[in-house]
Every structure is written in structure tokens, then in C-alpha cells.
Please model this.
Amino acid sequence: GEKTPAPSSGGASRRVLMFPLPFQGHINPMMQLADVLHSRGFGITVFHAAFNAPDPAGRPAGYRFVPVGVPADEDLLPTGSDADFAGALLRINERLQAPFQDSLREVLEEEERAAACLVVDSNLRGMQVVAERLGVPTLVLRTGGAACLVAYMAFPALCDKGILPPQDQSQLDMALDDLQPLLLRDLVFSTTTPHETMSTCLERIVESARHSSGLILNTFNDLEDAELRKVTNGTSVPVYAIGPLHKISAGAQSSLLAQDRTCLDWLDKQEAGSVLYVSFGSLASMDQEELVETAWGLANSRVPFLWVIRPNLVQCSEKVGLPDGFEEATRGRGMVVSWAPQQEVLGHHAVGGFWTHNGWNSTLESICEGVPMICRPCFADQMINARYVQEVWKTGFELEGKLERDKIEIGVTKLLSQAEGEKMRQRARDLKNKAALCIKKGGTSQTTIDLLVNSIMSF
Ligand code: UDX
Model:
């Protein structure tokens, strides 16, 4: 079904095929990696689902986009924190496998021996199997952190021991010795996905890494050194920690929603370090009551805030909205947008804190700008990321339990105006500096990209 002709020139004799998982938090790092490889002279062929398709606009010559399959059915588009995300992942693999085989065959015929390898999202084991069948070497991109993958690798053994799934609530705070500082609750990835589905899903992720010719992670050595060593030991394949990708890639951004850039002008007018940025990524959701508590928590805290309320943030059949009186109470010091240019927002000098759901991209973006966090993880790897923010990097703290306005007010004040928050900010700045060093010439991520490029050339 592909109509765009392959670019005739551009100097790239080898092409890298890529297949991102069709969700924002996965498309971003894959397209950033594409850009990094393109800048090293490779042509790029992006296979993508027909839904949540990355926008080809703004990409230089040498890029080609190949849609695979048909637009999504409802069951492939989980929205909301209690959606069965793992189930949807399995269905996506099932649904895309056959059309991908046809597309890949076609592309291999057209591009002859130019295709060096397929870089596939670690959630797309089904596509990797297709590549294996057709003799294409694969690299796997894991878009989450190394700590999360270590936990996924440990999951089957914890099930065998009867520790997972937890038998009752009282076990949730059990420390997991081999996975310090994680607690058992951090490995309860979803409240709606059946245990069997979750096991299968995690098994495939780990399998994809072990079957690959190399595993690419969007993290850096100074951030997750011990965890990266565990990943290397546990997968027995070359591991490439080449993050933070968004800081290395200079390409067009790959946002699926239009970013409201007027908030940058608004930030320009705020005092340095004064603004709380509030965003829960592309999938997490809240109910109407939580929205109201959040609104009053922000209003009562009296700090300037920039709050992203995406169109489907609140999952509710009735018309929802901000509470009466909220706008008047926060006029002049609050801005609400439906989608923000997040990396630029976090890098803006006015932003002093980030209230986040701790998706890996958000977590990494915050770390790289030296912004401390209030953590409110919802599902998947987010609890693990939040635990590391709180216990290992100590650049933030979790807002636990039911969302209530008083709790929010206390948290926001602690982060932005108290000594404890200032210490977290200091540690965040240290990490920012480390991140900046690793992407400089001779830094660990740059050196590892060289290794990765050599490896691709050798396929
Ligand atoms: C999902 C999972 O939730 C997450 O746990 C996993 O690690 C990756 O996949 P998502 O929930 O969307 O991702 O969160 P996150 O990983 O933080 O990615 C969101 C991306 O959207 C970030 O790159 C962020 O910069 C961008 N974003 C977010 C915007 O561009 N504008 C916004 O307003 C909010």
C-alpha cells in the first residue's frame, strides 16, 4: 500500500527499517532514534500502524513511511488508566503480523539488499518474528528504563515463588530484595489486566530482547548503571544505552496532538522556577472527582501552574469540566492547555516543578532539565519509575492514596517553596549535568551510538 517512492539519492546506501508501537510514548523515542541514525547516513523506512500514525511532514530526504494494516478497532486503542493495555498489545501484535509480512516482503524486494536491519519496539515481538522469518536481523528498542526491564525479567520467578500475583493487600508493601528499592506493589502493573495476560505480555518483551541482535535503551549509564549491567546479564545480547534520545535527536518532533505553543509566551512572563507544570502523558486518566480535587489543590496552593488537560484525560460519559469558581480563583496565575510542547516547557526557566504520571519519557525529560517531580503513577512501568525518582535519584516524591485537595496543596508547597523541594532540585540539576555530559563527544551515550552504528553496518 506504499506510494511514496524511495528517495533516489541522499547518499544512504543502507537503510534501517523501523516499527514503533503506535502510542505517543513509544513513537517519540523511535522517531528520535530514526533521526540519530539518519544523521549517521542511514536511510530510514518507518513501518507504522494505520492508526496513531507518525506525521511524515518535516522529515528530510531519506525517510520513507509505510502504513501497515487497517485503522484501529476500538479494542486496539486503550484509553484510561484502567484499560487493559497488555491485552491491547497482544491484539495489536496479532492484527498487524500478517499485513506486516506482506509489507516487509514488498519493501525488501524494492530496496533489495539495502535493508540492514529492523529496529522494532520491544512490545512488537510479533513483528520481530516476521523479520526473523524473512531473514532480517533485528534490534529491539525498549522505550522504558532499564530498572523496569530488570523487573520484567524477574516477573516469572516471582510468579513461580507464589509472590505474584499478591494474595492480599497486606503484601503490597513487601520489599523485593533482588529488586531494591522496588516494593511488590510496583509490580502490579494493572488492576484490570488478568494475571495470565500480563505474564504473556511481559514474557514477550523479554523474549524480544533475548532474540535480538542488540537491545537499545533510552537511558544513560550514569542514571542506571547497576540496572544496565543486570539487563546485559539477563539478556546475553549487546545492550546499547544511548539516551536521552530527545536531547541527541535534532529532528522534527512527533507529537500526535497539536501542541499549544502559546503557553511558552505565558511562561516567558513568569518568574524563574516559580511554575508547576502538570501533565499525565498520553494515556493516563482521572475521574471527574479527581479533576475537581486537582483543580482546587492547584488553586489553593497559590503557585503559578501550567496544566495539560488532554481531550480524553477525564473518562466519563457525562460532560465534564473544571469546577465553578476555579477560573476566577486562578486568573492570571494559571494556564490550562490541551497539549503542550512538553520538552520546551520543562526546559523553560520559569518551570520549577513537574507533577507527572511518570511515563518514562516524561521522567527522563524532567531529569534532563533538572526539574524535580511530584509523582502520581497510574499503571505499567510508571510505579517503578516513580519509586526510582523517590528512592534512588531522590528528585521527587510520590503523592499517595486518594487524590485530595489538601494533600495536593501540601505536596505542591513542599516541592516549590520548601527546603526539601530545593534539595530535590539540586539533585535534579546534578543529574541534568550528567545527562549533558553523556551526550557530548566522548560521553557514554555518544560512544555507544558509534558502537551501534558499527554493528548495523556489519549486518
Ligand atoms: C506510555 C506509558 O504510559 C509509559 O509508562 C511508558 O513508559 C511509555 O508509554 P505516556 O503515558 O504517553 O507513555 O507517557 P510518556 O512516556 O511520558 O510519554 C509522553 C510523551 O508525550 C512525552 O514525550 C511528552 O513530552 C509528550 N507530551 C506529553 C507532549 O508532547 N505534550 C504534552 O502535553 C504531554
